[in-house]
Amino acid sequence: MSRLITSRWVRLALAAAVVTAVVVAVLRLRRPSSARRPVAVPEPTRAEVASKVEAWPPAPILGTPDTKILRGYATPARLPGFLTRRPAPRPPLDRATRRFLTRWGAVACALCLLAVGAQFLESTVFSGRGHAGKPVVGRVPEVQETPAPVVLDADCHPAARRPHLRARNPKVTRAVNRQWVRIERWLRVNAPRTYGTLAAPARPGTIAVAEAQMGLRLPEDLRASLLRHNGGGVSLLGEDPLDVRRIRDSWRMLCEVDGTDDHLADETDERSEWWDGRMIPFTADGTGCYLLVDSVVRDVGRSCEDSPIGFAPGGVRVKSYYALLKATADALETGGRIGYWRPRVVEGVLDWDVVGSP
């Protein structure tokens, strides 16, 4: 048997089970016979059973009420008269009252039905949903501001025309040459280096071509001055004179920068702008400022970028190019000044100082 069961622990478990079974069998056989006999219990008598049954219903804990207490509970309670008194029957409503209540009741019902119907109609029709049940969002029209129309400066966009040689005005030519003689004489003595830079006269054909390209006529005094000295040399109020080609090129450049008529949009005078195509620049300071002459009014002004034209260069009014040329000759000969500009000579070169208010 031990050969069939190879596990030691299984053999020990079987041996323990056999020993346990033998011990249990021995103990059962050694039990005494008195323990195995049932004890006879006598049955109780009827009297004993009756004595053990309790009476029903049980007696109250607070005692059994007597006749007097029961009589008190049997007496009806005394209630106030307004609780026991029955109200008198109301008389029926008369015919007019019933008709009034009926009519106004019908009106109230009609108003209720109307309110309910209106609410239903509003929720059905104006619920913000389309046929597909999706919210309907109304489009708000976009308000686009119409930009102000751009008005081109007609003076900056002249029509093409052929150059035209104009005859000189003898009176203007003599007056301009007279002032140049005074200036040249003073420069020869006091500022020889500046005198040596005086330019040669411009050619009338060059002036005619520039006038045709700009669509403007140079004032007679400016034209006569260019026909004596074509720019260069004498500075006017601290700025260098321009020759004919530089006058035309500066005019074109300024028209490219601002070739519109802003005064038409804000109802201001075109002379209050910083540039207008009817102006003719004849000097430049190299920083964007120019002395110019109005081809219509003929007075002299000064323009700097983004600043209105000022028609009081040096703080004084100059009514024409000839007036500026004469004031320059006077200032050189007398040592005076033009507004707050005073001429001086530095190593043979004419220069101008700002000396304050005139």
TrEMBL record:
Alphabetical UniProt keywords:
Membrane, Transmembrane, Transmembrane helix
- Report the SUPFAM superfamilies cross-referenced here: SMI1/KNR4-like (SSF160631)
Knr4/Smi1-like domain: from which residue to which, for each copy? 201-324
Instruction: Identify the domain of life.
Output: Bacteria
- Membrane-spanning segments: 12-29, 100-121
Pfam families per UniProt:
SMI1_KNR4
InterPro entries in the record: Knr4/Smi1-like_dom, Knr4/Smi1-like_sf
Keyword Transmembrane listed: yes
- Record-given protein name: Knr4/Smi1-like domain-containing protein
